[in-house]
Design goal:
One of its GO terms (molecular function) is oxidoreductase activity. With 357 residues, the protein is an alpha/beta fold. The protein is built from eleven helices and twelve strands. Helix 2 packs across helix 3 (134-144), helix 4 (164-178) packs across helix 5 and helix 8 (280-289) crosses helix 9 (293-303). The longest helix has 17 residues, at 194-210. Bound molecules: NADP nicotinamide-adenine-dinucleotide phosphate.
Amino acid sequence: MPKSVNCQVVSLSLPALRTVVEILQVVQVFGNPIKYVTRKLPPNPSPSLSNLPPSTQPIQSPTSISFIKKIQFAMPDFTIHDVLPLPQTPIKIPRIGFGVFQDPPNKPECVKSCLAALEAGYRHIDTAQYYDNEEAVGEAVRQSGLERSDVFVTTKIQKPQGGVEETLESLRASVDRIGLGWVDLFLIHMPVSGPEGRREMWKALEKLKDEGKTKSIGVSNFGVKHLEEMKGYSGTIPAVNQIELHPWLQQSEIVDYCFKEGIVVEAYTPLVRALKNDEPDLVSIAEAHSVTPAQVLVRWSLQRGFVPLPKSYNPERIRSNADVYDFELSDEEMEKLNGKALPGGEGAVCPYDVNCP
Ligand SMILES: NC(=O)c1ccc[n+]([C@@H]2O[C@H](COP(=O)([O-])OP(=O)(O)OC[C@H]3O[C@@H](n4cnc5c(N)ncnc54)[C@H](OP(=O)(O)O)[C@@H]3O)[C@@H](O)[C@H]2O)c1
C-alpha cells in the first residue's frame, strides 16, 4: 500500500459522504490507518449510538455539499461521536472512553465524574471488577437520563474461579452489580492466570455473550503469544485488546498484530498519569496548538487509530480531555511523539506483564 494517496472529492451528497467516511473507518480497523480530511463534516444529526450507522440517518441540511478532501496515510476527521465497528458483532465502540480507575475506590466521586463525563459528551465508560466501582458506573448511567443503548459500558474479570460455570457466575455478578441489564464489552483484565485460567475465562465470556448479558468480549494486557494461543480453543476473535499505550510505551508488536487481525486497540493510561506533562517536546506541541499536554496525548492516540480511555475526577479536566476535535497534530508532531518510545517497555507506568507465561 502506498504511504500516501491524495484524492479530491467534490459535491458528494451527505449520505454518500458519510458512507465514504464509514468505509475509511472500517479499513482502518483492518490495519491500514487512513488520513485525512481537511474540513469537518456537518455534525451528525444525532449522537445516539442506536441510530448508527450515520449513512442511514436522515439528511438535515443541504443534500449536497462541496468540499475538497485530502486522503493520506492516516485517519478521517474526528468528532466525539465517532465509533468503530467491533469484529464478529453488530455493535460499534465509541472512539473515546472515560476511565474510572482510582486507588482507593471512591464510589460517590465515581458517580459524579461519570455524570460529568456523560454531560461532556463521552458515551463510553471503562470499569472493572478490580476497580470496585461497577455499581457506581451503573448508577451514573441511570442518573444521566440517557437511553441505555446510547452508553457503551465495559467491565473486566479479574481472575478465574476454578471452573467455567463458577467463572460465569462471577461475570453474571458484575452485570448485576452494574444493573443496566447488559454490558457492551467484557474483558479478561490480565493474562496472568496462565493458559488454563485464560481459557476458562474466555469460555465463560463466550457463554455470557450467548446469554445476551454482554454484547462483545475481549482481552486486556494480552501479548501476541496470548492472542495466538486463543486460536487453539476458540473461533471468536477478541473484539478488543486494551493495553497501556502512550508515546513512551508504544507496544508496536502487539498493536501491529491487533490491526492485522482486526482487533480494536484501546489505549489505557493514555495521559501517562500526568507524569510527562512537563516534557519539553510535549509542552511545545501543546503550546503550538494552544491546548494542554493531556489534549495532545489524547489526540496522538486517536490519530494512531487507538481508542483512548483518559481518566479524571476533575470536571474541567474531564471536559477538556475530550475537547480534541478542532486541532490536528501534523506529521512532524506525530513523528516527534512517535520517537519518544523507551526501549524494553521502560516507559510503562502500570505493572502488567504482556509477556507472562
Ligand atoms: N486494563 C488495565 O489493566 C488498565 C490499567 C490501567 C488503566 N486502565 C484504564 O484506563 C483508564 C485511564 O488510565 P489511568 O487512570 O491509569 O491514567 P491516565 O488516564 O493516563 O491519567 C489519569 C491521571 O491523570 C490526571 N489527569 C487527568 N486529566 C488531566 C489533565 N488534563 N491535566 C493534568 N492531569 C490530568 C488524573 O488526575 P485527576 O483525576 O485529578 O484529574 C489522574 O491522576 C483507567 O481509569 C482505566 O479505566 C486499564
